[in-house]
């Protein structure tokens, strides 16, 4: 009805405002955002170069994967702080592991565990009855209702992670939220959170996704630049959404309702 149409218009207006605002904020503060990318970005390029030097041992691949995660966390923390606290809040441009980065990494692990637990529980509800209906024989993956169930589980994972993602900007500026507080605070911004965590990264990263995994090491190194820019834009968008939710008093309300 009319109420639903108004909600859709409000959601679209928020998404448009956020998208325009994100590009405007990053362009206006481009010097600060480039400084954030300088040290970690160079490290990413070095890691990508090392990856292109031949087959890696399992331990080598694990080490480089850990370096990637470390670099992305450092960029995310600094970008959140620059966007929300202004110039000077982002700290050093050189990669480091401090309490904020450690807390950010812990929150990431915690959120992934919660999402995995939700997906496991949902898969029992969706898949186990299908197996029982077929006499205990698991259906072929990707076929029929199993394929539909897989997409439903993927959608559920995206939804839960989107609702919980507010913990990251809050953690970066030393105003940590619990997962439940983040869930409550994003109740009226669900479509916006899904846009930030799913649609925006997909749209911005589409050119590099279409190129796949090129064989040329120099092309692979060059592709890290748009990926880092995409990361900056997505993290900035999440920061701006946190600020909007905070201005609306929803974060304090979420904290009070949990007491």
Could you characterize what this model shows?
Helix 5 (144-164) packs across helix 8. By secondary structure, this protein is mainly alpha-helical. The mean pLDDT is 85. The relative contact order is 0.13. The chain has helices at 2-28, 30-51, 58-85, 99-133, 144-164, 167-172, 179-185, 190-204, 206-211, 217-247, 250-257.
Number of strands: 0
Q: What is the terminal separation in angstroms? A: 36 Å
The profile of the biggest β sheet is: none
Shape: globular
* Computed CA radius of gyration, to the nearest angstrom: 20 Å
- Compressed to H and E, one letter per element, the order equals HHHHHHHHHHH
Name the helicity range: over 70%
Mean pLDDT: 85
Structural class: mainly alpha
- Poorly predicted runs are none
Report the sheet-strand fraction: under 5%
Number of helices: 11
């Amino acid at each position: 009805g009319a109420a639903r149409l108004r909600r859709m218009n409000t959601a679209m207006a928020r998404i448009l405002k956020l998208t325009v605002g994100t590009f405007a904020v990053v362009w206006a503060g481009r010097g600060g955002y480039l400084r954030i990318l300088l040290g970690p970005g160079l490290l990413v390029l070095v890691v990508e170069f090392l990856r292109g030097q031949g087959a890696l041992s399992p331990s080598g691949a694990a080490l480089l994967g850990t370096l990637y995660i470390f670099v992305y966390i450092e960029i995310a923390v600094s970008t959140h702080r620059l966007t929300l606290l202004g110039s000077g809040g982002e700290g050093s441009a050189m990669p480091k592991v401090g309490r904020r980065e450690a807390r950010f990494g812990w929150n990431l692990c915690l959120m992934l565990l919660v999402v995995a637990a939700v997906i496991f529980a949902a898969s029992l509800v969706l898949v186990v009855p299908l197996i029982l209906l077929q006499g205990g024989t698991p259906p072929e993956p990707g076929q029929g209702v199993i394929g539909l169930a897989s997409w439903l589980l993927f959608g559920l994972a995206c939804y839960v992670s989107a609702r919980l993602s507010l913990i990251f900007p809050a953690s970066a500026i030393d105003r940590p939220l619990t997962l439940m507080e983040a869930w409550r605070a994003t109740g009226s911004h669900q479509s916006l959170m899904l846009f930030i965590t799913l649609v925006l990264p997909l749209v911005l990263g589409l050119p590099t996704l279409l190129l796949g995994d090129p064989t040329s090491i120099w092309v692979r190194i060059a592709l890290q630049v748009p990926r880092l820019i995409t990361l900056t834009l997505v993290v900035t968008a999440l920061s701006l959404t946190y600020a909007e939710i905070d201005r609306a008093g929803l974060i304090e309300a979420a904290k009070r309702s949990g007491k």
